[in-house]
Amino acid sequence: MRELAKWLWRFWRLHRSALAVIIIFSTANGAIKAAYPYVLKFIFDGIEAGFKIEDLLHYILMFLGVGISVYLVYMTMQGTRAYMNMRMEFRFRQWIFEYISRLSPSFYHKYTTGDIVTRLTDDITEKLAWFSCSGIFRTLEAVLMVVFGIAAMLTINAKLTLFAIGPLPLLVFIFIKTATILHQRFDTVQKAISHINDVMESCFSGIKVVKAYSREGAQKNVFSDAVDKRKKAEVRAVMTHGIIDSLWGHIWQLGVVIVMLFGGKMVIDGDLTLGGFVAFNSYVLMLIYPMFDIGQFVVAGRRGVVSVNRLRELEKFTPEIEEPSVPLKFESDGMEIEFREVGFSYDGNRFAVKNVSFAAKPGDLVALVGPVGSGKSTVLNMIPRLFDPTEGEITVNGKNLKYLSLEELRRAIGYVPQEPLLFSDTIENNITFHREWVSAQSIKESAEMAQLKSELSQFKDGYHTRVGTRGVNLSGGQKQRVSVARALAGNPKLLLLDDCTASLDALTEQELWRQLRQVMPKATCFLISHRTHTVRNADLILVFDQGQIVERGTHDSLIELNGLYRQLYEKQLLAESVGIA
Questions:
Q1: pTM of the model
Q2: Which residue would you say has higher pLDDT here, 395 or 131?
């Protein structure tokens, strides 16, 4: 619990005033509620002693005053707790989203989308947000009520107080014995929820494949199996929760029986007044609900610890790519890229690329070709620092890439991945992508260069057409053009195109390259493509095989070399001639 409180403090300290209000009013609420039975004691003792009507009215008014005070204090405390629940939920979600969005791609290889979504939603909303404020401070309120209540009981009769709190050691024993079981039960539930979300995400994102193979029934079975596992995990957790909760509350009710037996005998023997007996019963009954709350805290605490551990687990991953503390001045008028003996390994053992060296001047078109898995995309991804080289260095205009401003570097780059990724928004917003410096004129120009302008006339809302999840409302070629337009809209000095023209027809692609050369003559461009007519016009062709550059040169020189490039070229030419590529 100490680690939990330490972790939560980073968020609590942002709301010190609200926390102070909760703590002060929780203390006041416990103290005032503890005064209730004491006032009853005075009233019953007074009646037994022959109170005058004026004295009785005085204590009744005092009783009403205590009730009004409890109401005002409780409403303030409860309202502040509700506010803090919402603020904590916001803080948790903002923090974790911002944190994981800065992590490197290797993080997303380890955790599935469904698991991440569960940690951002169910773990925070359903488990941690309520527990981090209401769960903890409601328990604080309950503990204070128990402390004030027992203190008041001791002033009435110490011996009877010891009898009344007799069940407490048994409750402590139950807490110690059940903590581990609860933790395991709730951890299993959260993992089952993550699995369900992962199944749903993979099914719905690949719904076209599911339907193409008529596998709806199979997917239903997979989903049903995941739901069944969650149901069983939930049932086990709820049963454990219910048993512990019930034991915690009902064992404390033994105190009521004890007070009735021993307290009644004390009244008969004259060792306790009638008012003291009524007050004792009121205290024990009043403390039943706080004891229930403490029991709930035991359960919610284990559940909260599970959720916090699941979030803290993500903190073990640190961003592999960091902004330099004192970045070098970045000159983006033209970008000369040089690789010097660059190597990279994903796992620290096997190198994906090795001994890669080449240079590209502003305005150059560099094509990367080679078999699947030969390291082309890895080389491309190191330029915007999605990965840093394991060995060697990459320079921009003679300066090591690692020491340049990451923000300025990426601002100067236009990147189009192999698979076009669109967000559930409008075409215009997918092109601008939250870049406030992209003007309306730049949007139109980039759409025209990407050969998207003619397509927009097909849409009723033009640039304001919503593309749907992952661009589901657009064709493959349209999605590709929007992705290209996004890359061009920022007026980049460096273009990275990972087989991005595969969905475009030959004429559209030819026009794209013509306009690109005309509008951005100084932009350095790196291209991965299997199309023969795309790579043959490159200023430099780098041929990769097993992570190394095995050939380099222009199209004509490589054809004359009669090596791997010529084999790949002729194979692709044959595939295109028979219409299978």
A1: 0.69
A2: 395
